[in-house]
Design brief:
The chain is of the alpha/beta class. The chain has 18 helices and 13 strands. Strands 5, 6, 7, 8, 9, 10, 11, 12 and 13 form a nine-stranded mixed β-sheet that branches. The protein is globular, with a radius of gyration of 23 Å.
């Protein structure tokens, strides 16, 4: 196993078994040296980022379709094309490594084929790329259904949003202001040779000039800082929990927003953090431990509060609803191949069920913040429009801010406008 074969195995797990890349890659790259793990990550993320552009090239290079059991060879070719087009690997080295990888995959019979196809790409790359780029999905490196949805929902921003979603994401961090002022921490970063910029979106946010290992962040192990996109850091200030209030985070794992709420208002009476499944609850507990924070953690389904709710109302509820995740593609390019248009109705039903189930838990005068990392109207404004029209005790509160784009019911950040992930926020008050 080397970096390239580890990347191939992780991508096959995504394409063939529907696994998330951030689950598949660590398993595939386990035991590799740090440098090789970094290369495996670069290849894995890059191949999925540009999958819709380079898969048509591979299909054109092949004289006939490959058998299903040879998906790893197609991925091998994708990885080589990514190296040739986007990395600093010389063409001859990319070809040589691809041939060697075919052997490591246990398919020495394919070495001649891999060599021939990649050398053909070298000779015909201009023509081949010109042919595939006539197709919108290849040109924009996104599935056609998503391109069409964004054209409809964001007519003035759709194309640049897709372009920015293909870029490498910045590394943003959130500082615990209860323990360290931002100017002081910026100085600590500078002393460690890490350049940063204060965020204009939140008081707690910093953007690093270049990404670093989290262990290199001063005070990371002591809970001074958390890696979190700047747009995700807007949730706690928007919900604005007050001292003595009881707060529910209904879909809390891995704990970024839950821990931020505890840092934002340490004097809330109780934070109840709910999520489903041992693995997700474990992630939540790990986040709380590292940050030296405490919450009531419950393994339960937020759609069925009768199974876990103690009957005491909440003053604030954060509903970070499961969604298409189309706003975080730059961080998770596997979403491009994992998410299908046919999954959207099921997600919408789940979002609506969560709103209905959690609303009775909110005290009169309390507020619920509905959040998605989706760019799609049907998961965002339409959900809030439908819900508020059925519940006369629900009032949609305006969100006035210098960030994001105003929508009918809330506010949306866009990669193309805010240089953040795409988050939707809507604030509801019960009266």
């Amino acid at each position: 196993m080397n970096a390239r074969t580890a990347a191939i195995h992780s991508i096959v797990a995504v394409l063939d078994r529907g696994k998330m890349l951030d689950e598949a890659l660590p398993a595939a790259a386990a035991g590799l040296p740090d440098r090789d793990r970094a290369l495996a990550q670069e290849i894995s993320y890059g191949v999925l980022r540009w999958y819709f552009r380079f898969m048509p090239v591979v299909d054109r290079l092949l004289h006939r379709p490959m058998n299903a059991e040879d998906l790893d060879l197609k991925v091998l070719l994708l990885a080589a094309l990514h190296e040739m087009e986007h990395l600093r690997t010389p063409d001859h080295a990319a070809v040589s490594e691809a041939v060697a990888s075919a052997r490591l995959l246990g398919k020495p019979w394919a070495t001649g084929l891999v060599n021939a196809l990649l050398r053909r790409f070298q000779r015909e790359r201009v023509q081949l790329l010109a042919e595939v780029l006539r197709d919108p999905a290849a040109c924009l490196a996104h599935p056609l259904w998503l391109i069409e949805a964004l054209q409809r929902d964001w007519p003035g921003q759709w194309e640049q949003t897709l372009v920015r979603s293909n870029e490498r994401p910045p590394m943003d961090i959130r500082l615990n202001l209860q323990r360290c002022p931002r100017p002081e921490y910026a100085q600590q970063l500078a002393a460690a040779g890490i350049s940063s910029q204060d965020s204009a979106l939140t008081d707690s946010g910093l953007r690093l000039e270049t990404a670093v290992n989290v262990q290199d962040l001063p005070g990371f192990d002591r809970g001074l800082v958390t890696v979190q996109d700047l747009a995700a850091q807007l949730a706690a200030p928007l919900l604005d929990a007050q001292p003595g209030q009881r707060v529910l985070d209904a879909c809390a794992a891995p704990g970024g927003k839950a821990t931020h709420m505890l840092e934002y208002c340490p004097d809330i009476s109780e934070l109840v953090a709910v999520d489903r499944g041992e693995a997700r609850v474990g992630l939540l507990a790990t986040s709380l431990r590292r940050l030296q924070l405490s919450a009531t953690v419950i393994d339960g389904d937020a759609r069925t509060p009768a199974q876990w709710w103690d009957g005491r109302s909440f003053n604030r509820i954060l509903l970070d609803a499961p969604c298409s995740a189309t706003g975080v593609i730059r961080r998770h390019p596997d979403i491009k191949v994992l998410r299908q248009a046919g999954q959207l109705p099921g997600l919408e039903l789940r979002q609506a069920a969560l709103l209905e189930a959690l609303w009775p838990l909110l005290a009169p005068g309390g507020r619920m913040l509905y959040v998605t990392c989706s760019l799609l109207y049907r998961e965002n404004d339409r959900q809030i429009e439908k819900f508020s029209s059925k519940h006369k005790d629900a009032r949609v509160l305006p969100i006035s801010a210098a960030w994001g784009t105003a929508t009918t019911c809330g506010r949306q950040t866009l990669p193309s406008v805010d240089d953040t992930d795409g988050f939707y926020y809507a604030l509801l008050e019960r009266h």
